[in-house]
Design goal:
Blueprint: H1 2-22, H2 27-34, E1 42-43, H3 44-49, H4 54-60, E2 67-68, H5 70-83
Length: 109
């Protein structure tokens, strides 16, 4: 019985971990939310203001120019997922085009 409970608990934790990863915001959304000066990147002050540890900034700022770009954040998040044993999610598909409007006057009879 104890093994069954442990197995069920482990399965539930794995399910929750996958759901949390699936709900993680996209890197572009993170940059948009944290980029307070609108320059398209996150500087160290913006990083810290977003509640991130200052000492981790340099780990993400791959070229050490003092800004984290979308590409740097995307790469850092993918590397983190790989270290945690998960695969990086596939990019979201492009939205489908809107259906064409019917011609004026309706369809012919």
């Amino acid at each position: 019985m104890r093994i069954l409970i442990l197995a069920a608990s482990a399965a539930a934790m794995l399910t929750l971990a996958g759901a949390a990863q699936a709900q993680a915001p996209a890197p572009a959304d993170i940059i948009k939310a944290w980029d307070k000066n609108g320059d398209g990147a996150v500087d160290k002050a913006e990083w810290v203001a977003a509640g991130r540890p200052a000492e981790r900034f340099d780990l993400v700022d791959a070229n050490h120019d003092g800004k984290i770009t979308l590409e740097e954040l995307t790469q850092a998040l993918a590397a983190m997922r790989q270290r945690q044993g998960g695969a990086a999610p596939a990019p979201a598909p492009a939205p489908a085009p809107a259906p064409a409007a019917p011609p004026a006057g309706g369809a012919p009879h």
